[in-house]
Amino acid sequence: MDRIENDDNVGEWDMGLEILNARLKPIDFVISPLSADALAQLPVDPVADVRSTSNLERYPAGDPFTSPFVPEPPPTDMATANDDSKAAQLHREAYDLYKTANATYQGDNTHKFPYIQIRQGLRSTTEQARLYEAYYRYLYYDGPVAVAANQPGKSFHEYGFAIDVVRGDDEILLADSLESAGWQKINADEGWHFEARGAASFTTVQTAIQTRVIPVSTQYVKELDAFLKLKQQYDFQSPAVLAEEQRLRNEDMALRTLNRSLILRAQNLQRRRDQLQKENADLNNAAVQINVATQRYNSMVYNLCPNREPFERCTHTDLKNQWLAEKKAAYDTIVRMTNQYNADRARYQTEYAQYNRDVPILAQDKVAYQRREQIFQRDRAASRRARAKLSAMLAQSQQHRSTAATLVGTITTLVSTIRQGL
C-alpha cells in the first residue's frame, strides 16, 4: 500500500503566517482638538452662517453701503414726556436742532405722537463695527440679510449727529419738522435716518472723518475682508472637512476590524495545518499497520495438526476450522483497517484541498488589506497636512481678526478725540 507523503505545498502557509509574525500595528488616528489659547482667540460672531460663495459678482464696485432691502426699525412704546431721553445723548448742537424740530412737530395740531421718538441716536463705534460686519457679510459673503451700515468711524451716529426716528403713519410731518430745523434725510430708502447737517460743527466732523478716520477705517475693512475670506476658505467646520474626517475615522475602525479578522483567520489556518500534519502522521502509521497485518495474513501457515500434516491432508476438522476462523478474523481486521484508512484518507484529502485553497485566499486578502491600509495612511497624511494648513490659516485669520479689533479700538479713540474737540 502506498505511503502518504507530506506535501510541500504546506509551505505556502508562510504567506499567511506573516500576519501572525508581523502582528500588524494598530492605526492611531486622533484629531487634535483646538488648544485653549486658540479657542480663546475665536471671535464672537454676530453672524454664524457664513456660506461658501462670494457675492462680489452680484454687487458693482463702488459704494458698498446701498442695500437692496432696508427694513425700518420697529417703533418703540409711546411715552408721555415732552421729548425723547435719547436726544440728550446727542451732541449739544444736534440736541438743540432736535428740540427745535420737536417743538415744530408738537406745535402742529395733526401730530400723532407726543414727541419725535428716537429709535437710536448716539451709537458706539463697537456697535457700529458689529452692524457693519453683518452688512459686509451679507454683501460679499452670502450672509443673512442685514440693514445697511457704514464703516466704523464713518457713521454720524458715533458723533451724536444722527438719529433714527420712529415714523409710524406720521412720516411727512416728522420729516418736515426735522428738515425745517436743520436735519437732513440722506437716503430715500432709509426714511427714518436723519443727520444734523445744519449744526455748526457738522462740517468739522465731516472733515475729520475724511482726513483722520477713513484711512484707518479703510484698513479695518481690508483686515475684516481678509479674515472673512480665510474663514470661508479654511473653515474647520465646513461640511467637506467634517465629512473627510468622519470617513477616515470610519475607515480606521474598518481596518482595525479587518486586521483582527485576518489574524484570527491566520491563527485558524495554523491550527488546521497542525491538525492536518497530525492526521497525515496517523494515516502513515495506519498504512504501516495495514501492511504489517497484510504481511502477517499472507504468511499464515497451518501448523495445528498433531501429525504435522499440511492443511490439505490434515484430518482434524476441528483444528482446521479453528485455523480458518483465525485467518478469517485476520482478514476481517485488514478489511476494517483498510476501510477506516480509506475513509480517513478521503476526509484528509478534502480538508487538505480546502486548506490549500484557503491559504492563497488569505494571502490575497492580506495584500488587499495592505493596499487599503496604504491608501488610508496616504489619505490620513493628506488630512493631517490639510489640518495643519487649516491651523495655520486659522492663526492667520485670527491675526487679521485681532488687527481689525485693534483698528476698531483706534477708531474709537479717534471718534472720542474728535467729539471732545467739538
Helical coverage, percent range? 55-70%
Structural class: mainly alpha
CATH architecture classification of the largest domain: 2-Layer Sandwich
Tell me the count of domains: 2
Tell me the number of strands: 4
CA radius of gyration is: 49 Å
Q: What would you call the shape?
A: rod-shaped
Tell me the major beta sheet. Answer: 4 strands, antiparallel
Distance between the termini: 123 Å
H and E order: HHHEHEHEEHHH
> Percent of residues in beta strands?
under 5%
Average pLDDT across residues?
83
Helices, by number, come to: 8
Structure characteristics:
422 residues, 8 helices, disordered N terminus, Muramoyl-pentapeptide Carboxypeptidase, domain 2, rod-shaped, mainly alpha
Description:
The longest helix has 104 residues. The chain folds into 2 domains: 187 residues; 192 residues, Muramoyl-pentapeptide Carboxypeptidase, domain 2 (2-Layer Sandwich). The chain is built from 8 helices and 4 strands, in the order H-H-H-E-H-E-H-E-E-H-H-H. The chain has a 4-stranded antiparallel beta sheet with strand order 1-2-4-3, covered by helices on one side. With 422 residues, the chain is mostly helical.
